[in-house]
Amino acid sequence: MIDLTGIIAISGQPGLYKVVAQSKNGIIVESLTDKKRTAVSATAKVSSLEDISMFTTSDDKPVAEIMKSIFDKEKGGACIDSKADDKTVVAYFASVLPDYDKDRVYTSNMRKLYTWYNGLQSTGNLKLKEEATKDEATEKIVKAATEKKAAVKKTATKSEPKAKTAVGVKKTTGVRKAGTA
Q1: Could you give the dihedral angle defined by the CA atoms of residues 81, 83, 85 and 90, in that order, rounded to the nearest 10 degrees?
Q2: What angle (nearest 5°) sits at the alpha carbon of residue 125, between those of residues 29 and 23?
Q3: Would you say 128 and 2 are in contact if contact means Cβ atoms under 8 Å apart?
């Protein structure tokens, strides 16, 4: 499957975005095409590509699996243009997902999928899950090694704690002298 973690579509805004961080009133996203960061309010309609699926005659099929089929068909290259004529768009989709529900999947849905796929492919964000997990595993190893190195450096620079000395404290014994009250 294609790794669509953190990739979102925002209603009313063109293109795809990557979630960078959370803010007080929503999220901060980065455009995949021009890398510009913007804040998106919590009231905006945001759809995670991971959660989107298309209707088939049996179970719904996640967009990630359909993109994987396109990826395999095109050997990692771009798919057809979303602005192609309707017959071409439908025929191509039928070759990628033969059991799609012809009554509930519209040509506009197919075009949107092609736009997303080509957008991910052109920006280099079209990664298979195996590649993504390898990248994440490598990042975790590097991060762990860096943290370990920092911890070793920190303990090496620490000196032994100095003995505490009381300054200005009068030492008294609990014995009173005779004849004093």
Answers
A1: 60
A2: 15
A3: yes
One-letter identity of residue 118:
N
48 token code pair = 């995670």
Q: How far apart (Å, rounded) are the C-alpha atoms in residues 119 and 129?
A: 18
Distance (Å, rounded) from C-alpha 21 to C-alpha 137?
Answer: 21
- Across the chain, mean pLDDT equals 81
Are 1 and 50 a contacting pair, CB within 8 Å?
no
Q: What is the pTM of this model?
A: 0.70
Average pLDDT over residues 60-83: 94
How far is the CA of 49 from the CAs of 9, 65, 142, in angstroms?
Answer: 7, 11, 29
Report the alpha-carbon distance of residue 93 to residue 129 in Å, rounded: 22
